[in-house]
Design goal:
Chain B: It is a multi-pass membrane protein. Chain B: Pfam families: BPD_transp_2. The complex is a heterotrimer. By secondary structure, chain A is an alpha/beta fold. Chain A contains twelve helices and 19 strands. In chain A, the strands form five sheets. A seven-stranded mixed beta sheet of chain A has the order 7-6-8-9-10-14-15, sandwiched between helices. A five-stranded parallel beta sheet of chain A has the order 2-1-3-4-5, with helices on both faces. In chain A, strands 17-18-19 form a three-stranded antiparallel beta sheet, with no helix packed on it. The termini of chain A are far apart. By secondary structure, chain C is mainly α. In chain C, the strands form two sheets. In chain C, strands 3-2-1-4 form a four-stranded antiparallel beta sheet. In chain C, strands 5-6 form a two-stranded antiparallel sheet. In chain C, a hairpin with a 5-residue loop joins strand 1 and strand 2. In chain C, helix 2 runs parallel beside helix 6, helix 16 packs across helix 17 and helix 20 packs across helix 21. Classes of the chains: A alpha/beta, B mainly alpha, C mainly alpha.
Chain lengths: 433, 384, 548
């Protein structure tokens, strides 16, 4: 009996403890506005996401120097979802329910975003997602500040086709949703442009693939037919270093078979000797080398904040920069941090981006961005060799996939729909079939 | 009749207490969550209901592992695979329940199949629109895999470390397989965006509370089953196999059958845990197959105390509670703390927290009569 | 000229290359333009806007046919050709240890250099680099350097043009180096196939190309066969078939080579584990982190060399290897003394404790070095590749194979020919007996573990040359390592060697058919099945030692 009491007592105390912990967290915060930062600080994704956590702390710090938002200071709540996808959902719930954050900036992989989506929908909060992704999604509570496929992949292919005269294509990617979808879109696009099926080679590799000998040789053989060949790489972060090392060692030069990558930025190149890679391409919406006063200012402040002169900036950082400024502006416009009001206020908000123009939040919750094609330089930076004349609107539902070409998203009243079917005139995808 | 044989010994007070507690929690927490207003100090926020529901599923998984490791000496580094397979079976049912509410509004195909250009449902998705079928598969798939795997492995006397490594190979192979988009399980993104479970919306507070209660009850059932098996004559045989397999064999028993039985039952339990886990966290993806996850389960069990019934439950709750707290409060220190915990427990608490508690309270002797105590180091002799 | 370039931009930039051939023909005997003229053309870079205009200037420079333009074109290609903002003069900038501004023609340093901000870089892209390469190639067909002539011949081979046959005949007649001559003849044959020369000549060309046996020749022959008729068609098809047959054999050889190279990576990763796990029975889950420590040691050594003695860079790996051995060995020793020695006889618990150690090491490295990949450079002797028949063998892979075998040989020697090795084997086979014979088993254990860890560290040095150096490095090798050791058989180094190599080759033979992912899954399934058949691996220790 004695045992029984103590044991139950302990559990009750533990439960009560956690309740009061939560409650305490909820009540004590009247004077600050909390902003959630949901990026992995350990596990496989820490490699990319840690920088974004620092970026958010930096941006919040800068904003507080300017006096915060609505007369209140901002307070960052950092959690570590540890590259564990269900943990993303748990942490998102914790941020929203327990910490009462006004908005969350976070996620990198599509699966982490998919994992937290239902949570944001259920608890009605705001997520800013800063990474390029496969599209095919538009959700009321999510604002996509990274590139959709038409803001990265298609312009890059256009560039190769028009400027480099590429006729044969290798679509190489890591086997997950972003490359699969992007390659499906690209294959459809290329075929629409008259490229024959046998001139397209599609190849998928597992995450963290490290032995590229066979595939690089295949690419070399595929490119030895005399037709100009290029590789469109959607290879994910970790696998890139061995891939590029193998390319360099097998002597595949950019002049012969250029590789255009969508997931390789300054941060990834920092782990590589880029001298043999000069001339290979990347497509992004921002490069550290972009020569504008805003960018110079951003880089200088970032380096001062992080206290490391060697740190680089990259595209997802700019996406957070844009997203954060949009949120600040929308909160000030709405006069409150209430998610519903801010979600409505965000559409149409326009803020300067770092490449010298303005990015606007569109009704489909994607933003307008310029597309830059850059060549890798020996110092690990990119040099812009081509850019779109103006900004490109993110297209959430690809026009090149049969099932999504009739869909549009518009979160303004009266439509308020993420998958409106223009053919059937109904919200909710494809009403037929 | 078998039940009677298994149950004939009755349960120790400790297990009765655990059962009582689990049932109480199953009733109390949903009531406190649903009936009390949010500002009441005894109100349990929905966020915590979901969180503790998840922990309870982990506890059931740890218990399942304990049945094979603590009582039968098989260290499986692949229990995450059974858990995930159960989860996938449930996830497939939940995907089918979405029906035409997916973004493409395809009444048959889940969204990921639509944009990956599937034209029709793969054969292995058939039947998952019925709950009974999915519920059957939740148990049948992990059970069958364990049975086949165990059939071969135990028959050819793969033991000890070798067995651990090939169970790891098994979960790793499944991880890679489920990552492939061509497999038809949603690739890296897995299955998500669930709407309904047997007609109730997954995100509703009442559904969450119900799922929590079900998890607590499932865990209670797991405790009953494990205690019954362990307390039976067959359980004695399992312990004999654990402690001295060759000797048991020479006495005329068939250790491979004993192990196969334990392994299969354990896999089914793990599958059920996975099935309850998925609707509560809202996603199942290949990451769950990661060998590291399975190793973590081993750690929960070791921390709580293996070879006991409530040890793994305590371990799972404690380690996961710590994980939730650390990853929120001290994100950078989380791995240091977890790593340190592993070392500390193996070095200083070979019998886990429960063992320590027993030592302190001096209950050890009394309890030992009813519960077979763990015998550290008995599963594999030193390689000399 | 302008119109020509305009045309060139409109068609694809590839069309530039045949155009270049016109230069080759026109300027076979280079008419040396006077320096002032070249200088005035170079100055045009200052006003060129956008790539088409820059390309026009490049073409114009090429048209002078004067080898003196090579310096400025190379500089442009390397991205160091700059415009001085003040007066639009063109210079080459060098920033090796302070800014040096060079004249684009003479290469002499200019006196008042100013600062880098005074100059604007002339931008260059792939298309431009290709054009420059072509221009330089055409300039160098008559160069004195045989390598330059070889490159020129390559360019001509890649862009067969019937109009170039005459030029080529002249060059072949004057060529003294056999390899270059051969290449020129191949280029000529390629051109002949596209010309309207008599069939007899074409048959000769087909025979010559058929003899080359590589993919470039194959595509030329296939292209020819598609449009040819009669005898020529069948001759070309026959030659193509012969090439295909030899290529199939080379493909086989290539798979074997790739397999051995993957196998030696596995061997390196696993051999330390073969000692700690195989010999001592300790499941060291932190083994991967020892590899990681080795890789980070390489990084640290290279950083130190970059900062202190850049000239030593090519030696960095030779310095890093012993350092990594010591670092990882020391950590291993500390682990053994601090944790593992309390857990002997409980292998499954060492698994947990070492897993904890691996988490701590990972996070420690993440805290110290940051979560990002670190750059580990390849020394020059590990960069690039060479051709062996139709096989491109990269130097880094070759050295890793050599290195892995060397490590294996050294270990074998230590085990079989030294007294320490004798003690180790004695302890492995019968601990109690060894102890009663006066062997200090605890110290043998400690140093064996340190040896295994140190070898893992050395493996890290090699693996840093082909993959990521990140805190996750170890995780990516640990499972594969265990598979190799278990497959090969515990307690036997030969088993590890055979296991690693056969898994590597198996993987590479499956990959072309099943794809990289499915190939790996199949290998895992095969290992699981194999273990059912031989529960103790390929090379099992016999006798009582393993019967637990």
């Amino acid at each position: 009996m004695n045992l029984k009491l103590t044991r139950r007592g302990v559990l009750a105390a533990a439960l009560a403890g956690s309740i009061s912990f939560t409650a305490g967290a909820a009540f004590a915060q009247e004077e600050t506005i909390k902003v959630g930062v949901l990026h992995s600080l350990s596990g496989t994704m820490a490699i990319s996401e840690t920088t974004l956590k620092d970026t958010m702390l930096f941006l919040i710090d800068e904003q507080n120097k300017k006096g915060g938002v609505l007369g209140k200071k901002l307070e960052a709540v950092v959690v570590d979802p540890a590259s564990d996808w269900p943990l993303f959902a748990e942490k998102a719930r914790e941020l929203i329910s327990a910490n009462k954050v006004a908005a969350v900036f976070g996620c990198w992989t599509s699966v982490s975003r998919k994992s937290v989506l239902p949570v944001f929908e259920e608890l009605n909060n705001i997520l800013f997602y800063p990474v390029q992704y496969e599209g095919e999604e538009s959700q009321r509570n999510v604002f996509y500040t990274g590139a959709a496929p038409n803001q990265q992949a298609i312009p890059a292919v256009d560039y190769l086709m028009n400027e480099e005269g590429v006729e044969r294509w290798v679509l190489a990617g890591t086997d997950y949703v972003y490359p699969q979808t992007t390659n499906k879109i690209l294959a459809a696009y290329l075929e629409a442009k008259g490229v024959a099926k046998e001139d397209i080679m599609v190849n998928y590799t597992p995450f963290g693939h490290s032995d590229w000998q066979t595939i690089v040789t295949d690419i070399k053989n595929f490119g030895s037919t005399g037709k100009k060949t290029a590789v469109v790489s959607t290879i994910n972060g970790d696998a890139n270093v061995p891939f590029y090392k193998e390319l360099a060692n097998q002597g595949i030069k950019a002049e012969d078979i250029p590789v255009v990558a969508f997931s390789v930025g300054e941060e990834e190149l920092a782990g590589l000797d880029t001298a043999p890679l000069v001339g290979h391409l990347t497509a992004w919406n921002y490069f550290q080398s972009v020569d504008t006063p805003e960018n110079a200012d951003f880089i200088a402040k970032w380096k001062a904040y992080i206290k490391n002169d060697k740190r680089v900036t990259n595209d997802p950082m700019e996406a957070h920069y844009i997203g954060f400024n949009m949120w600040v502006k929308a909160v000030e416009k709405a006069g409150t941090t209430d998610p519903d009001a801010v979600i409505d206020a965000l559409v149409g908000v326009s803020v300067p981006n770092l490449s010298g123009g303005y990015s606007t939040m569109m009704p489909n919750h994607h933003i307008t961005k310029p597309v830059l094609i850059g060549e890798i330089q020996a110092d690990g930076q990119m040099e812009t060799v081509w850019e779109t004349p103006g900004v490109v609107v993110g297209d959430e539902w690809s026009d090149y996939l049969a099932d999504s070409k009739d869909l549009i998203a518009d979160w303004r009243a009266p439509m308020n729909c993420g998958n409106f079917n223009t053919a059937s005139g109904k919200c909710g995808g494809k009403a037929t079939n | 009749m078998i039940t009677q044989r298994f149950l004939s010994n009755g349960f120790s007070p400790r297990i009765q207490l655990t059962l009582l507690l689990l049932v109480a929690v199953a009733i109390l927490v949903p009531v406190l969550n649903l009936a009390l207003p949010a500002d009441n100090p005894f109100h349990v926020p929905t966020y915590l209901v979901a969180l503790f529901g998840k922990y309870l599923c982990y506890a059931l998984l740890a218990l399942a592992l304990d049945l094979v490791w603590g009582y039968c000496g098989i260290l499986s580094l692949g229990h995450g695979a059974f858990f995930s397979l159960g989860g996938y079976a449930m996830g497939m049912y939940l995907m089918r329940q979405i029906g035409s509410r997916g973004v493409y509004a395809n009444p048959i195909l889940p969204d990921f199949m639509v944009f990956l250009n599937y034209r029709e449902l793969p054969w292995f998705w058939l039947g998952f629109d019925h709950f009974w079928f999915a519920a059957l598969m939740v148990m049948a798939v992990p059970g069958l895999l364990a049975f086949v795997f165990g059939w071969f492995a135990f028959r050819s006397r793969v033991t000890g470390v070798y067995l651990s490594i090939i169970t790891q190979a098994m979960t790793y192979a499944l991880l890679l397989a489920f990552f492939r988009n061509d497999m038809g399980f949603g690739g890296n993104n897995g299955l998500t965006d669930f709407k309904d479970i047997v007609g109730f919306p997954v995100q509703a507070q009442t559904t969450r509370a119900t799922l929590f209660a079900l998890s607590a009850l499932a865990l209670a059932l797991g405790v009953v089953v494990t205690a019954a098996i362990v307390g039976s004559k067959y359980g004695k045989l399992m312990i004999a196999v654990r402690d001295a397999e060759p000797r048991t064999r020479f006495l005329g028993w068939r250790p491979e059958n004993v192990k196969l039985f334990a392994f299969t039952v354990s896999a089914v339990m793990a599958g059920i845990a996975g099935a309850l886990y998925v609707p509560q966290v809202g996603i199942i993806n290949p990451g769950e197959f990661a060998p590291a996850n399975s190793i973590e389960v081993v750690v929960w069990t070791a921390v709580g105390g293996r070879g006991t019934i409530i040890g793994p439950i305590i371990g799972a709750l404690l380690v996961n509670g710590a994980k939730s707290w650390f990853t929120g409060a001290l994100p950078e220190l989380w791995l240091f703390a977890l790593g340190g915990l592993f070392i500390f427990v193996t070095l200083f608490l070979p019998k886990g927290i429960l063992g320590l508690y027993d030592q302190w309270t001096g209950h050890r002797r009394r309890i030992r009569k009813q519960e077979p105590a763990p015998l550290p180091g008995a599963e594999v002799q030193p390689a000399e | 000229m302008q119109r020509r370039v305009q045309h060139c931009r409109q068609s694809r930039s590839l069309a530039v290359l045949p155009l270049l051939l016109a230069f080759v023909i026109a300027f076979l005997a280079p008419a040396h333009a006077d320096e002032a003229q070249v200088r005035s053309i170079i100055t045009k870079f200052g006003d060129a806007k956008g790539f088409p205009q820059i390309e026009a200037v490049v073409q114009e420079l090429g048209a002078t046919g004067d080898p003196v333009v090579a310096r400025s074109l190379n500089a442009l290609s390397d991205g160091v050709l700059h415009v001085r903002k003040a007066d639009k003069q063109i210079f080459i900038l060098e920033e090796r240890g302070g800014l040096r501004v060079l004249d684009p023609l003479s290469g002499e340093a200019v006196a008042d250099a100013g600062v880098a901000r005074d100059y604007t870089k002339i931008r260059v892209n792939n298309g431009l680099r290709r054009t420059i390469r072509g221009v330089l190639g055409s300039l160098t067909l008559s160069a004195s350097d045989p390598n330059a002539r070889m490159r020129a011949a390559d360019t001509l081979f890649q862009t067969p043009d019937p109009d170039a046959i005459e030029t080529l005949d002249g060059a072949i007649a004057g060529e003294s180096v056999p390899a270059v001559k051969m290449r020129l003849q191949q280029a000529r044959a390629a051109a002949v196939l596209q010309s309207d020369l008599p069939d007899a000549q074409k048959e000769e060309a087909i025979a010559l190309l058929g003899g080359m046996g590589d993919r470039a020749a194959l595509s030329l022959l296939n292209g020819f066969a598609a449009n040819a008729q009669g005898d020529l068609k069948s001759a070309a098809e026959g030659a193509a078939d012969r090439i295909n047959t030899t290529l199939a054999a080379w493909d086989m050889a290539q798979n074997v080579w790739f397999g051995l190279s993957l196998g030696s990576v596995l061997l390196l990763a696993a051999i330390g584990l073969a000692i700690t796990f195989g010999v001592m029975g300790v499941i060291n889950m932190a083994h991967g982190e020892m590899v990681m420590l080795g890789a980070y040691t390489t990084f640290a050594v290279q950083e130190a060399i970059r900062a202190g003695a850049p000239g030593l860079f090519d030696w960095s790996l030779l310095i890093a290897a012993p350092t990594a051995f010591l670092v990882a060995g020391a950590v291993g020793l500390a682990m053994e003394r601090g944790i593992i020695r309390f857990l002997y006889g409980r292998p499954l618990e060492t698994l947990l404790a070492t897993w904890g150690v691996s988490l701590i090491l990972q996070q420690a490295v993440r805290t110290i070095f940051g979560p990002n990949n670190r750059e580990v450079g390849n020394p020059s002797w590990m960069s690039g590749s060479f051709e062996l028949g139709q096989l491109a063998i990269t130097w880094n892979r070759l050295w890793i194979v050599v290195f892995a075998l060397a490590v294996f040989a050294v270990l074998l020697f230590v085990f079989n020919r030294t007294s320490w090795g004798l003690h180790m084997r004695a302890v492995t086979q019968n601990r109690r007996m060894a102890a009663s014979m006066g062997i200090r088993t605890p110290w043998v254990d400690a140093f064996t573990f340190a040896l295994g860890s140190g070898i893992a560290g050395i493996a890290g040095v090699a693996l840093s040359q082909i993959g990521n150096v990140s805190p996750n490095l170890g995780q990516s090798y640990i499972i594969d390592s265990f598979m190799v050791v278990v497959f090969g058989g515990v307690g036997n180094l030969w088993g590890t060697l055979v296991g690693a190599m056969s898994l590597g080759v198996l993987n590479k033979f499956l990959e072309p058919y099943a794809g990289a992912v499915l190939g790996k899954i199949l290998v895992l399934v095969l290992i699981i099945l194999f273990i059912q058949k031989r529960p103790r691996g390929l090379f099992a220790l016999k006798g009582r030692a393993v019967e637990a």
